[in-house]
Amino acid sequence: MGTFHDDHGDLHGITVVVETSTDLLYVGRCHEENDNRVVLHDADLHEKTPGGPTREEYLDKAMRFGVWAKMPTVVIPRPEVIRLCRLVDLATG
Asked: Which of 37, 21, 32, 22 is closest to 82 using CA atoms?
């Protein structure tokens, strides 16, 4: 039987998208979410840059191919989180 992490939230172990108020967008495996923070493992980051891919283009590629984990762990302060959802939910609307 596997290890249970009831205190980590319903999204524990799921690939999620975290949209922030700082124009940063993270995609990674949710480790923990609570009132103070969201912790992701094996995460990638999209930052708006001139001439770079849009968020929509980045997310489309992430849904089709996954992400290259550039950050082993990232901690995002909960007050900065605008949206937290499963990556697969974006594909189905």
From this structure: 21
User: Cα 14 vs. chain centroid, distance in angstroms?
Assistant: 9
Number of CB atoms found within 10 A of residue 82's CB: 10
Task: Flag whether 1 is in a domain.
Answer: no
Q: What is the mean pLDDT of the chain?
A: 89
> In this structure, what token pair is assigned to residue 76?
């995002």
Domain CATH number, residue 27: 2.30.30.100
pLDDT of 10? 82
In a domain, 32, yes or no: yes
Q: Count other Cβ atoms within 10 Å, centred on residue 76.
A: 20
**pLDDT > 50? residue 1:** no
- What's the CA gap between 87 and 67, in Å, rounded? 11
